[in-house]
């Protein structure tokens, strides 16, 4: 990792030579140490942070001016591979928005300007330009009296500069550069299109000096005059100053000049637009000229790229003026005469003159889709009646942003039936190419279409992997319309190489008409011909040219902005080029070493293993993987043709790999629901006679609903490839591990399908599942499935049957869940909690049976059988403790601790052994979780905890000291949390509240105690079954608490939570919040639940593609009444945001006014609704969307933040509903000012506790009109609804796993489930055995019902209706937005906000 960190810093270096050195070193590592990178990428749900940093540095390098750096970055990206965008979380790379200086004459602007000039000076190599920068810095330092002199009034500004900037500027404090700029040339109007505006540099420079002539104000003029020469000599400096020059020009110029500014900007945005003729009465500025005729701008000589770059410059200027206006309002909103402020009036008038729709249309033309969306939404917010009319634009934008959910949302909001053109976009974006082709063919019957239509149609057929059809269509189009030959060449070329028709491909590419064609299909065809001919040098040069072409699409890609997904196709193509080059190198190495068959075979096997790893990291959808697999098949066929004469065995191996590529395509298409494509791929794979193909074929039949063919295919496949299939005790005639896995998978499918269709009885199906286990004993999944089948059998038994004939079944469940844990971690959250629950619950049943006084002989026999079965279970668990890595049991540590009062002595003894084992191996994590039990008010729990902690195995000298220090620290933190503080106190010192705490932490013999932060406590599980042993579950280096900062902030809340900061052993500060009078065990369990949910959200391809997740943080309960919570920085409460926005809009309603407008609890429903609709809603119009535009002014950042808001809100809404989370008022929902994500806090009100409030809560989650409006014109349709549905689907699929996280509550009688009281800490409990919380069990049953789609019908106390995922999501959205529900909510909850 250290080596990678050094390389990353080199790639980010300002010096070109250092960058190139870093890139060459990285390229070398990517070739020689592939396993290191795969471990960083494939071992986690997210890639290692260093990989994100490397990818961000490489993508930044693709925008570098140096061609060598760009090529080296592209080469390294291809070597890393097309990493799934869902793995590259962009949140960690985001930086907070910098404050915008409110004028060029402010200290803030001058400080930023001086740093920019110094950086430009440092990178510059031209003497005259360096002199210009020196002059600018010299004059600005002098003008604002900035120096290191102690007497300088701006010494603080000098001190804020980085050291290297100070070194550059120090000589300029006494330099004597002179400004020698000449008079400006009179410019035509508009400048664009004239001889002064034929390049970006010329237009920007000349128009800027036109603007400068209009600026008044001595200080501002002096600032820009100082920089005038540098503006002419350096484009980047010009673009840096240009927004402020326009700003001050607008504030200073006359209406006539401002009109000319607007005309110039509009002319740039659309150089064919008509510029209105000014009135003869208007005063003309000195630079304005009259244009004759229609006054259309002459643009014949303008280069298309120049026009686009000039337009993008204007877009950034418009963005800046809008941002400045918002920042100005935010800074002056308390002013009573803001609306009359001349700056506000001038800027508002200026931006209102430019149509937001016009800006959106121009951005679409320039490919700036996030900005187009932002301005189109601004237009619709002012003109809602035009929403339906502009839906086509929304669809076009979202299609280009590759956002299928939003496209579906558009279709859902459309009032009229969509056109075939719109349906084509929908089908193409969602990958339903078969449906898109049907629409294309229907349209093709009506009239002759343009080139784009036929390009789309042929591309669809190629996407369906029907190259013969696409070739015939392309050739047919050319024969009927010869003028389209150039358009169709790309598709003909791609069809030829996909069909391996290389002679025809060569003939096509030898044509002069195609010589200059840079399309991907043509260029890939040329590369393959070079490969076939063995022209290595030419091939490598050609691949270099192809990378250069792809780099154009990567110029705007950045992980920080979140734009990686939008240009993922270019990343995939770099991935493909790397594999083509790598394969060619392997082939050449084989041809040089044909005498050594074994070595040649080893080279090919290594390449295939490398390919396998790389494909795992690609986005797991057909549209992403299929281009890779398609090219692999073609390359393998070429490689086979080159070596088959000399190495027939290697050629035969390559032939099989071609078949496996077809099989992989079939698997991916089936998982995407593309059954017709999957069937096509299977047909292509059949000629390669792969043994595993019949399994995939059966899966396809089953998912298509063809059950009989599925069973028939499995039976035939087993009979053909595996003998003696009818013998349940046979391990089958298999030839190796891979064969046994195929056989086991087929048998498991037989068992599963029979189970689903209830084709056979219980005993036969158990036999089927056992055969699957026996066929491959090292396969985790088969053991889990058998155990789960036993579990379902147990579930239909009565309580009495469970303890009699169900005893053996439970032993088998423990056995097979335990076996699955030996061979992998993919199902650990199903297996481990359930196995422990069976063992511990059965032990409780034995203890209860032994206490019964009325013991008949039959009863005694039952008890003896139960004890025998319990002994068997305990023995299995003991073996697992010895064999399994300890981190596996740590995943269920909360569950183990919750059963610490277990009534069976022998079970408790073994339970204690497991807990002690965890304490020995993971003492830091375990002790933090054990402390709340140790400090519990339950005397028996404390006694049991002491038994654990006093175990001789654990309590050696070192651990005794650690335990003592943990205990002392916990006690001091409890004291700090509960210490009374005065009402008006905002800041206090830790030492004044608990003076012994700072001394304790600073004492030299104080133990190393881990910082209780999420990054050090989340268990990272291995994804490779072969790496279970020796895996490090906590790869992040631990940081220990070294001291506590004395400053303590009292937060404004009833219970006065306190924010403190610990100093870690790494020197960083870690903020925590101490909360009193709050049972944080619920919050802790909720976070555990959320972390498990996150694991499954990341594993699901659809969820990972959308980045669905819950923002989590660490919670440490200290006892039943207080605890500490990891502080999450850069969050702002929803209520604070909305109130601030209403104040800025001059529309704030204070608490007194709200009270007058609100209803009483006793009012009728109709009265409450009338007040809500007539008074509250009109006084609180939607404003939340403005927060996103002001907080994220850069369009890409705005789009990503808004998308993150929608999706994180959806996920948390569904998860919160499942757990009955209430009290979601405006201070319990916060938003990240860096990423836009929704963050929920305070989970005390769970399990539907809110339904028993004085004002009962009526809605399942917060989804008020403000939150809906902030999602854009589509509202809940599209992204929000789809994210809800995906989340619900995953929660249902993993219901048993997720419930296991909540079940420990059943054995924690101290947790309040319904009471809303926050009274004093309960008195010590004296229970002597484990008790179950009956109310908890009832609530868990309700949660299980909700997870399965049960909804409560109004007026009924029970859930009687089960809905589909889509139906349940729709029902919840309707309930959350229902006015009848919202008007019944308590006014303090803010249903009107």
UniProtKB/TrEMBL annotation:
| One Gene Ontology term, aspect cellular component | nucleus
Coiled-coil features, chain-numbered ranges: 846-883
EC code(s) of this entry: 2.7.11.1
Mind telling me which SUPFAM superfamilies this protein's record contains? ARM repeat, Protein kinase-like (PK-like)
User: At the top level of its lineage, which domain of life is listed?
Assistant: Eukaryota
Tell me which residues make up the PI3K/PI4K catalytic domain. Answer: 1044-1351
- Annotated compartments: Nucleus
- Give me any GO biological process, just one: DNA damage checkpoint signaling
Enumerate the GO terms in the molecular function aspect.
ATP binding; protein serine/threonine kinase activity
Q: Which EC class does it fall in?
A: transferase
Q: Where are the transmembrane segments?
A: none
Residue stretches making up the FAT domain: 358-936
The segment(s) forming the FATC domain are 1361-1393
Alphabetically list the UniProt keywords: ATP-binding, Coiled coil, DNA damage, DNA repair, Kinase, Nucleotide-binding, Nucleus, Serine/threonine-protein kinase, Transferase
Q: Matching SMART domains, A to Z? A: FATC, PI3Kc
Similarity-based family: Belongs to the PI3/PI4-kinase family. ATM subfamily.
Instruction: Indicate what this protein is called per its UniProt record.
Output: Serine/threonine-protein kinase ATR
What organism is listed for this UniProt entry? Zootermopsis nevadensis (Dampwood termite)
């Amino acid at each position: 990792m250290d080596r990678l960190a050094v390389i990353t810093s080199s790639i980010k270096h300002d010096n070109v030579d250092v960058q190139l050195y870093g890139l060459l070193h990285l390229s070398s590592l990517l070739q020689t140490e592939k396993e290191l990178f795969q471990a960083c990428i494939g071992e986690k749900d997210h890639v290692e942070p260093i990989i994100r940093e490397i990818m961000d540095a490489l993508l930044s390098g693709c925008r570098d001016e140096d061609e060598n750096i760009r090529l080296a970055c592209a080469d390294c990206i291809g070597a890393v591979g097309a990493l799934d965008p869902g793995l590259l979380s962009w949140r960690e790379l985001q930086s907070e928005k910098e404050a915008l200086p409110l004028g060029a004459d402010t200290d803030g602007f001058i400080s930023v300007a001086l740093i920019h000039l110094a950086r430009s000076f440092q990178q510059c190599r031209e003497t005259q330009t360096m002199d210009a920068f020196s002059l600018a810095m010299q004059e600005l330092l002098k003008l604002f009296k900035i120096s290191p002199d102690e007497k300088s009034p701006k010494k603080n500004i000098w001190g804020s500069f980085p050291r290297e900037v100070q070194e550059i500027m120090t000589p300029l404090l006494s330099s004597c550069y002179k400004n020698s700029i000449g008079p400006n040339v009179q410019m035509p109007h508009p400048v664009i299109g004239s001889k002064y505006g034929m390049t970006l540099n010329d237009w920007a420079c000349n128009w800027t000096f036109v603007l400068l002539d209009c600026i008044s104000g001595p200080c501002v003029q002096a600032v820009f005059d100082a920089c005038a020469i540098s503006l002419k000599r350096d484009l980047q400096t010009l673009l840096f100053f240009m927004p402020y020059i326009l700003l001050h020009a607008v504030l200073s110029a006359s209406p006539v000049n401002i009109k000319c500014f607007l005309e110039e900007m509009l002319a740039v945005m659309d150089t064919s637009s008509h510029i209105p003729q000014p009135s003869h009465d208007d005063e003309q500025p000195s630079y304005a000229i009259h244009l004759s005729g229609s006054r259309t701008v002459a643009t014949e000589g303008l280069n298309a790229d120049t026009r686009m770059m000039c337009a993008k410059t204007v877009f950034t200027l418009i963005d800046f003026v809008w941002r400045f206006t918002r920042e100005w309002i935010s800074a002056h909103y308390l002013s009573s005469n803001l609306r009359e402020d001349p700056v506000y009036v001038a800027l508002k008038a200026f931006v209102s003159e430019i149509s937001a729709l016009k800006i959106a249309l121009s951005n679409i033309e320039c490919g700036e889709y996030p900005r187009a969306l932002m301005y189109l939404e601004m237009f619709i917010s002012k003109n809602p009646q035009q929403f339906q009319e502009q839906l086509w634009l929304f669809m076009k934008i979202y299609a280009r942003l590759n956002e299928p959910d939003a496209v579906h949302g558009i279709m859902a909001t459309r009032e009229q039936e969509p056109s075939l053109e719109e349906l084509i976009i929908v089908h193409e974006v969602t990958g339903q190419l078969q449906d898109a082709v049907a629409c294309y063919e229907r349209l093709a019957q009506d009239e002759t279409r343009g080139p784009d239509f036929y390009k789309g149609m042929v591309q669809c057929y190629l996407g369906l992997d029907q190259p013969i059809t696409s070739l015939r269509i392309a050739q047919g189009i050319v024969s009927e319309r010869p003028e389209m030959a150039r358009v169709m060449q790309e598709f003909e070329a791609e069809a030829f190489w996909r069909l391996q028709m290389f002679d025809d491909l060569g003939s096509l590419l030898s044509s002069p008409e195609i010589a200059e064609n840079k399309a991907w299909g043509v260029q890939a065809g040329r590369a393959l011909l070079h490969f076939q001919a063995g022209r290595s040098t030419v091939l490598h040069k050609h691949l270099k040219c192809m990378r250069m072409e792809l780099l154009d699409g990567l110029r705007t890609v950045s992980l920080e902005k979140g734009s990686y997904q939008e240009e993922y196709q270019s990343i995939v193509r770099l991935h493909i080029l790397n594999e083509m080059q790598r394969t060619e190198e392997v082939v050449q190495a084989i041809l040089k070493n044909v005498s050594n068959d074994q070595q040649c075979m080893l080279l090919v096997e290594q390449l295939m293993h490398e390919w396998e790893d790389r494909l795992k990291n690609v986005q797991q959808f057909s549209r992403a993987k299929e281009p890779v697999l398609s090219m692999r098949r073609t390359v393998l066929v070429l490689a086979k043709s080159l070596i088959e004469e000399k190495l027939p065995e290697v050629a035969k191996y390559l032939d099989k790999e071609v078949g496996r590529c077809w099989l992989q395509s079939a698997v991916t298409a089936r998982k995407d629901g593309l059954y017709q494509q999957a069937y096509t791929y299977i047909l292509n794979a059949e000629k390669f006679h792969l043994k595993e193909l019949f399994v995939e074929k059966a899966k396809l039949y089953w998912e298509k609903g063809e059950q009989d063919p599925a069973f028939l295919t499995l039976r035939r496949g087993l009979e053909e490839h595996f003998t003696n299939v009818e013998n349940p005790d046979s391990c089958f005639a298999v030839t190796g591990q891979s064969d046994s896995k195929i056989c086991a998978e087929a048998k498991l499918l037989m068992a599963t399908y029979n189970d689903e269709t209830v084709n056979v009885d219980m005993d036969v199906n158990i036999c089927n599942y056992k055969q699957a286990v026996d066929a491959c004993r090292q396969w985790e999944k088969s053991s889990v499935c058998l155990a789960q089948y036993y579990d379902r059998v147990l579930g239909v038994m009565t309580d009495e049957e469970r303890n009699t004939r169900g005893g053996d079944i439970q032993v088998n469940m423990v056995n097979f869940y335990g076996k699955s844990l030996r061979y992998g971690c993919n199902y650990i959250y199903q297996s481990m909690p359930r196995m422990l629950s069976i063992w511990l619950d059965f032990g409780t049943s034995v203890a209860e049976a032994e206490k019964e006084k009325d013991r008949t002989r039959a009863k005694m026999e039952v008890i003896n059988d139960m004890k025998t079965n319990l002994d068997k279970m305990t023995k299995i668990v003991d073996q697992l403790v010895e064999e399994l890595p300890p981190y596996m049991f740590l995943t269920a540590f909360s569950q183990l601790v919750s059963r610490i009062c277990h009534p069976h002595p022998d079970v408790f003894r073994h339970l204690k052994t497991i807990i002690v084992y965890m304490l020995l191996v993971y003492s830091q994590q375990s002790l933090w979780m054990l402390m709340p039990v140790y400090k519990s008010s339950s005397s028996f729990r404390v006694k049991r905890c002491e038994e654990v902690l006093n175990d001789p195995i654990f309590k050696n000298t070192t651990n005794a000291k650690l335990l003592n220090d943990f205990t002392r620290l916990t006690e001091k933190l409890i004291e700090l949390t509960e210490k009374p503080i005065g009402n008006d106190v905002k800041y206090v010192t830790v030492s004044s509240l608990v003076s012994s705490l700072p001394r304790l932490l600073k004492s030299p013999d104080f133990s190393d105690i881990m910082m209780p932060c999420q990054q050090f406590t989340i268990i990272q599980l291995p994804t490779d079954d072969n790496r279970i042993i020796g895996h490090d579950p906590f790869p992040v280096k631990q940081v220990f608490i070294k001291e506590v900062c004395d400053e303590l902030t009292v937060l404004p809340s009833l219970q006065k939570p306190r924010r403190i900061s610990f100093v870690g052993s790494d020197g960083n500060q870690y903020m925590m919040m101490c909360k009193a009078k709050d049972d944080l065990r619920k919050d802790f369990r909720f976070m555990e639940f959320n972390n498990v949910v996150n694991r499954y959200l990341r594993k699901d391809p659809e969820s990972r593609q959308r980045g669905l997740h819950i923002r989590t943080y660490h919670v440490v309960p200290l006892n039943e009444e207080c605890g500490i919570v990891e502080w999450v920085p850069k969050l702002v409460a929803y209520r604070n945001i909305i109130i601030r926005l209403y104040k800025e809009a001059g529309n704030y309603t204070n608490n007194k006014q709200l009270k007058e407008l609100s209803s009483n609890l006793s009012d009728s429903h109709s009265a409450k609704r009338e007040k809500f609709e007539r008074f509250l809603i009109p006084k609180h119009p939607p404003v939340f969307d403005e927060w996103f535009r002001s907080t994220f002014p850069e369009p890409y950042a705005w789009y990503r933040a808004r998308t993150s808001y929608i999706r994180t809100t959806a996920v948390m809404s569904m998860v919160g509903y499942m757990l009955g989370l209430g009290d979601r008022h405006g201070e319990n929902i916060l938003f990240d000012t860096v990423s836009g994500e929704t963050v929920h806090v305070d989970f005390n009100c769970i399990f539907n506790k809110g339904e028993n409030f004085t004002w009962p809560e009526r809605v399942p989650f917060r989804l008020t009109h403000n939150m809906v409006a902030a999602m854009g014109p589509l509202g809940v349709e599209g992204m929000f609804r789809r994210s809800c549905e995906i989340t619900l689907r995953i929660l249902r699929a993993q219901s048993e796993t997720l419930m296991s996280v909540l079940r420990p509550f059943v054995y924690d009688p101290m947790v309040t489930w319904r009471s809303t009281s926050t009274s004093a800490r309960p008195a010590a409990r004296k229970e002597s055995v484990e008790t179950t919380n009956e109310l908890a069990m009832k609530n868990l049953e309700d949660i299980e019902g909700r997870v399965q789609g049960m909804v409560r019908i109004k007026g009924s106390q029970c859930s009687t209706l089960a809905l589909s995922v889509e139906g349940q999501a729709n029902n919840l959205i309707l309930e959350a937005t229902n006015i009848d529900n919202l008007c019944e909510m308590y006014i303090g909850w803010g249903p009107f906000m």
